Amino acid sequence: MTMLITGGTVVSATGADAYDVLVDGETIVALLTPGSDLATSAAAGAERVIDATGKYVIPGGIDAHTHMELPFGGTFASDDFENGTRAAAWGGTTTIIDFAVQSFGQNVQESLDTWFAKAEGNCAIDYAFHMIIGDVNDASLKAMDVLVDEGITSFKLFMAYPGVFLSDDRQILQAMQQAAGNGSMIMMHAENGIAIDLLAEQAVARGETEPVNHGYVRRAELEGEATHRAIQLAKVGASPLYIVHLSASQALEQVAIARGNGANVFAETCPQYLYLNLEDHLGAPGFTGAGYVCSTPLRSKHEHHHADLWNGLRTNDLSVVATDHCPFCMKDQKELGLDDFRAIPNGIGGVEHRMDLIYQGVLQGEITLPRWVELCATTPARMFGLYPKKGVIQPGADADIVLYDPDASWTISVENHHMNMDYSAYEGFDIQGRVDTVISRGNVIIENEAYHGQAGDGQYLRRGLSQYLV
To answer: pTM of the prediction?
Structure first.
């Protein structure tokens, strides 16, 4: 089907201009000057014309960090691939990159196949995978080369969770050397997990079991130390490095120093680290704070983490905004840690709200309109081998298009979100701007406040190498 989107302002990573967008089937075929002969002819011949007057026309969002159905602490993330990707679509995200998980003692390829089985035929939008290497050994190192050829071009390691995912410095360096050879990206959960576990044990021994203690023991200094160590290991291993869910000023400082020295070091942050804090949210009365337990943790509002992270987004020391979407319900899931904060499943649901929350930064003067698109769509596509099919509105790209209404206003609530959660981490947040229409590979899946897609609409994406590596 041919489709023409008229009257809107097309926003890219480099600017905002009035264009009509012509789509043929699953692909964008032209950007046309409104009122031109070509635009008039296209409107006459299009099978469908969508009026985008007063709206921004942006590339579909790419959330490069989600965890659908992730096993954690005796339970599973409450969003499966069907519901989680549908919620993403409601929020203007048309591609997710989830994490397949190899735990200790497991075969890498068999682990990946498990995640393929979870996702295949269930996703509402397009999807890809990173690979978590939880057991660095000769077999998993060799598997990294095989997976790169299969379109899995990024591998996540952990400096946290001893006995579950933690890799020691020797293993990290081995994986980085392997990545240097095959051109892939090493992603790092950078916290000093051994020190954190000691502090957690000491807190529980003192009777400090409430959710807020999760934030107290996962100190910002330990995120900063691990980030520094990861950067130095990447330098020795000649590997690119991408720090996930960066939350602390101390960690950002290390990234900024490395980037200033020309290193292939990149980092993402998440909306929760820009808007939520330790005192008001993680430290909420009673057990309410359990809904805000995530790792890295929320940071203190009395320090300058929020301001520094926004500044990092402006300077590009923070290159991407993802969500680390890993939702758990309070009932029967977060409640596993009623008597011990260490047993609270780690994660916050946010895949549906990322585009809206970061757009508030535009309105607040923190970032520009093109930077919003760059952080949420274009850079993730380039960083993880999806560009130019994804992350941009230009001829030849997939027709992943969002019409965004800057004049709409609404309030986030558990009553109106589409994630499988019994609470909202952003309950009561007033939002200016809203996703109006979502098009995924030429198919209108959100329109007139209704979902028109179905499970299986999404396709698996084989990714190339990052475009940011030198």
So the answer is: 0.98
